[in-house]
Design brief:
By secondary structure, the protein is an all-alpha fold. Helices cover 54% and strands 0% of the residues. It has seven helices and no strands. The longest helix has 22 residues. The protein starts with a helix and ends in a 6-residue tail after the last helix.
């Protein structure tokens, strides 16, 4: 499945991706922010096996790549690792988008603060709304 940029932008306009190197604290920080701000965390690593079970090696080759041992995985060149990581992430994104549409509507209808960008939104208008919501205007 190939999503076009306009579709991705629509689905991901309220999504933040936390990325970084292995063991860099991505999960820890994401969970802490989720606890502090009552937001949903979708940990793609925790969902990998579920995604992989419904994947197809012809269409998701990076997700289905088998490494014979830790040396084969860790001793790749930086360029090989980068390509595999980006391809793997792109392939899993299809599953994330399809599985999370329900969450989008649940969250939007939850009564929590909801700020949705539109093509007419300006940076100033959006920043002003966020400042008012978080009470930052009193600090200026």
């Amino acid at each position: 499945m190939i999503f076009q940029d306009n579709v991705l932008k629509e689905y991901l306009k309220n999504v933040y991706f936390v990325t970084g190197t292995p063991c860099g604290g991505k999960t820890t920080i994401s969970r802490e922010l989720a606890n502090r701000h009552n937001i949903l965390v979708y940990d793609i690593d925790e969902q990998f096996e579920k995604h992989q079970q419904v994947s197809n090696a012809a269409f998701q080759p990076a997700m289905n790549k088998k490494f014979k041992d830790a040396d084969e995985f860790f001793l790749r060149t930086v360029d090989d690792y980068k390509k595999w990581l980006l391809d793997n992430t792109r392939e899993q994104l299809d599953f994330v988008l399809l599985l999370n549409e329900k969450y989008y509507w649940d969250i939007k209808g939850s009564g929590y603060f909801w700020l949705e960008r539109t093509p007419q939104s300006t940076v100033k208008e959006t920043a002003d709304k966020v400042e008012r919501y978080f009470g930052l205007v009193n600090l200026l």
